[in-house]
Prior knowledge:
Elements: E1 3-5, H1 8-21, E2 26-31, H2 37-49, E3 52-57, H3 77-86, E4 91-93, H4 97-100, H5 118-122, H6 126-141, E5 145-149, H7 153-165, E6 171-175, H8 195-216, H9 222-234, E7 239-248, E8 263-270, E9 273-280
Helix pairs in contact: 6-7, 8-9
Amino acid sequence: MPTLFRKSREMRNYSRLQKCEKRLTIGLVPTMGYLHDGHRRLIRESKMQNDLTVVSIYVNPLQFAEGEDYDRYPRDLQRDMSICEEEGVDVVFAPTDEDMYPEKPLVSIEINGLTDVLEGKFRPGHFSGVCTVVLKLFNIIQPDRAYFGEKDYQQLKVVERLVKDLSLNVDIVPVKTVRDLDGLALSSRNSYLSSEERESALSLYRSFLLAERLIKEGKKDASFIKQAIKEFLLSHDGVRKIDYVEITDENLRPLETVEESSRILLAVWVGNTRLIDNWRIGCEQV
Ligand code: AMP
């Protein structure tokens, strides 16, 4: 079994020892737990590139707004520990709320520009909460590299800017989205879906294939593609609402004309479950 630390003091002391005395490199995979094959991919990447791999498991209350799924978010530390053991993880850091936030933090991180669109627009305060916890984890664990999935593409971009703007001493390594065989992007939140809802959720992936086809046929107008995606999604009974469908460049700037390697990003409600996914045109495996 990996070593389990529940206290940041223990985690920090461990990292200090490994890095300063033993000169070992540390890869960090930050997660909210309920691990799946997407997380496994991040862990494997870290294991290839570092002497030690730390997986953090923490459902960060700061990044959930009132009325979101903080309370019902799936949690199973025993199951996660077994998966980490299978993957040869060295340390699991699963702090308690008291340890992470002994008091309500007075300091917050504000991100300008990058977060007033997409997820940031629909989840105000979300990325401020993400950046706070990521910065805390970096300070406690002192990783050489940290692994983030493209599944949460805006989060990846925000964290890259956090590191750049605050000159943090860590390399951010992006990892491609892992999908089920039928195309559904893996997510801990998929556990909320009934089997009918899961079927409707496949429309997200299929809408990317539709977009690929239209673009290959020469349709380059982003509004046209977005409209086609929306109509396709809403033609599925289980799709209750679309928060957004956007086509951007790699820095999340909206595009009017679709280009090679533009990205489609969307957030969709299937029943009571909010799913996000994204797709790099022309570059993903179909
Ligand atoms: P989460 O536990 O959902 O907060 O995710 C932890 C990390 O795993 C984040 O960097 C996610 O982007 C990444 N991740 C989640 N799902 C996937 C997936 N299907 N493929 C690749 N990375 C993922």
